[in-house]
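Q: Hi! New to this. If I give you a protein sequence and the SMILES for zinc ion, can you show me the bound structure?
A: Yes, paste them in.
Q: Okay, here:
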Amino acid sequence: MNDEVKVTQEINHEFWMRHALTLAQRAQDEGEVPVGAVLVLDNQPIGEGWNRPIGRHDPTAHAEIMALRQGGQVMQNYRLLEATLYVTLEPCVMCAGAMVHSRIGRLVYGADDLKTGAAGSLLDVLRHPGMNHQVAIESGVLADACSAMLSDFFRLRRAQQKALKQAAKTAGGH
Ligand SMILES: [Zn+2]
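A: Thanks. Here is the predicted structure of the protein with zinc ion bound:
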């Protein structure tokens, strides 16, 4: 890859990751853990998703799954060859499995998920040598912004829970 192509690709990666971050914000606005995903083919978005398992009462309603589902509808095909999925956080085992089934060409993600990441942190589902389809991976795109969004969310939630506990104690009259 020559330098010019590489620079263009990096700019594209950041552009779409910024888009995924705005989708993550939507999850946060709905009280969900802020993760966003956008599926891109030929530089066009064909699927968007944000994390919404709580609101949907659906354990599979992760950002990546939502984006892949929409992409399948748009393409009228369950195979999404050559598509690139941008997601703000390293995918879990379920989402990585769905990516293999969808046959996407590439995953680009922001922050590592050291506890449950299935793109190399906990497991490496996407590059497992026994897998019938391998997905190329690029990580660390806008990683600071992606992980700050998550850590801010959890910090705020902890503070809210602490305040609630404190209020309950006060109301108890002790
Ligand atoms: Zn997932």
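A: The first helix runs from residue 3 to 29. Let me know if you'd like me to explain how to read the tokens.
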